[in-house]
Amino acid sequence: MNVKLIISLIIFIVTACVNNEKESEKLFSDKYVSVNLKYAKKFKIKKYSEYTVMTILLHDDNSDSINYYLINKNKKIPKYLSTKNIIRTPIERVVCLSTTHVAFINEIKKNSKIKGVSGSKYIYNKEIRKNIASGKIHDTGYDQNIDYELLLSLKPDLVFAYQVMGEASPTVNKMKKLGINVVLVNEYLEPSALGMAEWTKFFAEFFDEQELSKKKFNKIEKSYNKLLNLTDTISNRPDVFVNLPWKGTWYISGGISNISEFIQAAGGNYILSDTTTKHNLPLSIEEVYQLANNADIWINPGQAKTKKDIFNTDKRLQNFTAFKTGMIFNRNARLNENGGNDYMESGTVNPDIILKDLIKIFHPYLMKNHKFYYYRKLDNF
Hints:
Blueprint: H1 3-29, E1 33-34, E2 43-47, E3 52-58, E4 64-72, E5 86-89, E6 94-96, H2 99-107, E7 114-117, H3 126-133, E8 138-139, H4 148-153, E9 158-162, H5 170-177, E10 182-185, H6 193-197, H7 200-207, H8 210-231, E11 239-242, E12 249-253, H9 258-265, E13 269-270, E14 280-284, H10 285-292, E15 297-299, H11 307-313, H12 321-325, E16 328-330, H13 342-345, H14 351-362, E17 376-377
Parallel strand pairs: 4-5, 6-7, 6-9, 7-8, 9-10, 11-13, 11-15, 15-16
Antiparallel strand pairs: 1-2, 2-3, 3-4, 12-14, 16-17
Helix pairs in contact: 7-8, 8-14
């Protein structure tokens, strides 16, 4: 082989390697601005000159993470990002695999961009349901039953999936192999109600609606904190317990759970507030009776709509003081005809309204003009 040709090839390879190294280094050396997140702990936003990096922190201990690289459609993709999870923004066609995703997108007024959903009959949002009925939005199925042919026909720019599916789940892997962008969402891991609501800013990045999301969240934050000030000095706090036993086991929320935060913020005393877990604790009915027999208020008793529903679950439940006084309230005031619960949907972005409901339950004199939105008092037999 010609010596000059060999030398030229070597120079070319070395130069290419050096350039690639420089481009890789650029990714980590470029100046960026971190978007200020007040409460959310499970995602981060870094703004570079040519792109935005969205980082999702996985698991309770943040032991792993995923980066998504958002690049405006009018900009070229830098070579050093060519192998990354690239998403061109603003997105125009999206599929949501959770009702909470619908709520976040509704908050930034982008419902028209939703082309597919999972479990359509459980969605409460009236505009979305209207679009489903008219064929503008299709039900793609869920988890192992996703209709991939239908999904592909929708030509989504992006699919929002819930994080419990995992990046390596068969469903996510299948979508990636089909060339579909998938973004995992784990707002449910947030340690605070405002942290969950702040995920509106996360969704806004994909639609270029940053300013609207800030405006919306600031309004919610102001309302929520105003309510906190209202209950902060209350000394007469009713004892509160939650949930309903299932097949003899009462899974009751831990002391640093979302519902524990709401109860204490609303001026209540949660019976398990001294426990240091966010997860449900499996207790027997007898154990909960010892803790909550004389509690003043009972909330979130499963699917119960009447006291009879509770009685039919287990006759021993009639012995609780809250059952006798009728102070039982459930978060099922807004249900569609299929049982889809708006608390589980829009409640994620409206923690201030949930808090108003709970304050009205615990301290009705503080919320005389507020009408229950998510909650209702259980009917008698």
